[in-house]
Amino acid sequence: MSVLRTLVSSSRALVTGAREVARFREIVTVFVTHGFGWFFAQLKLRRELQVDLQGADLTRAALADPDTGKRLVAALTKLGPTFVKLGQILSTRTDLLPATIISELASLQDNVEGLPFSAVEAQLVRNLGASFRERFSEFDEKPLASASIAQVHRATLVGGEKVALKVQRPAVRAKIESDLGILMALAGYLEEAIDEARAMDLRGIITGFTKSISAELDFRIEARNLERFRGNFCEVEEVVFPTVYGELSTAEVLCVEFLDGRKFSDLLTTGEDTRPLVSIYFNSAYKMLFYDGFFHGDLHPGNVLVLNDGKVGVLDCGMVGRLSPMAKDRIIDILYAVLNEDLETVARVFYELSIRHGPVDYERFEADVVEIAERYLVGVPLSEIQIGTLFGEIVVGATRHNVRMPTDFTMMFKAIITTEGLAKSIAPDIDPLDLARPFIAKMVAERYSQDRIKQIALADFSMISRMFRSLPRTLPAMIDDIRAGKIAMSLSPETLAEQQRQADQQMSRGIRASLTIASLACATYSLGLGLPIWDVVGIPVLSAALYFAAGVGLFTLLWR
User: Which of 95, 298, 333, 408 is catalytic?
Assistant: First the structure.
């Protein structure tokens, strides 16, 4: 673990453990032999890693080859589970990679040779106890599916329930954690050597990927995702998420209800009529995306089952996306702007959602967004508008302006593209926006409901209240920091002096106001203390003096 901490904490640190050095060398060698030698030639790591670049194509032109996507898929597949998962994540990043490479990455298959059952059984004993067999009346030792992180077995519980057990491969967590450390170090090297890598924020990408794959390695998170989906869809009879058997589930074993059906992708291959299922599929995806704000991150046809009773079952819920209520509000703004062809608003909302990593010329950014939106919206029938493709192209174009979208939004746009693409392949005349309208209407109704308005007003009031309460503490400290040069401000000395004078005046007024109020309160209180009366004014001398002081203070507040 100390090696991992070193790797993650510094992009300059060399890998020190013999195993990590060997793995680092293997990773570099695989990429070099698949035509990506130019990247590693920039790193000057040949001596440290002893990688032989002789005979490799080290030109940048090799990266523009038509087969680049296929070569990248081959390299990622050869390097194993961490890199296959990374490729699948990158297939959603249309803002980073060209469409030709994205389409190849989308084809990455996570199918590997199955483990011997003895290894699976050892995992089950470690996680469920030596007597786990007593819980099952049947257990199929032949895997139903096998992937790089886990494999799935069918079984029947003693009570007769059909279940599927997802069992994590032994030692896969340690291997992935080691690979993640190496990837972080490699991303740091690339950012230091290549401007484009720095602009892409490679280390940020690896950090996000680490969070994603860490969630997939803990099956308890997938179990919680399933329970949340089941709660969200409890009133939707046509859609089924498998029940989780918590007593038979751990971080490395997930036991869920077995859904008996055929994959949507298989039905498409056989040419069967799947049109009746399109609206169910669309409604499910749109409910997740536009209403729940909690959506399946990889809802491709392979993860959707058509059950024997005609319902739709959803599998593999380890990768999910989330949208906050504020983010959903922005999505409503974009969709309304799309429907009304308000292209400037489309640009503005995208900009508000984005993360800026450099100076932005907003006018040029807006012009680019408007140009893209015009091609997809102006004069195009609603039934032919492809929202996901439009969003995806805007995200790609935004990168030219130092603007990129948060990961959950790029995942959402990818989900919309996948949903639209599937629906169009089955029913070319379908109108995606028409199917989305009920959900948009529901979102709008919720957005402007009394409860929601009260919630927003209370949140805004609390924020403003906290800000004003903190001013007496933070303003003097800020002024001290400016004086000490700890805060750099592009102000002239005259402007800074004027702001300092105004701040001093505000503070002085605050002090005088406090003293005036205190004088008034003390003067009034002293009236009832039985003190000697000053015959001239008919009140105690102390009270008269305090009232006089309060009067002077009030005068200075009103006329100075």
Answer: 298
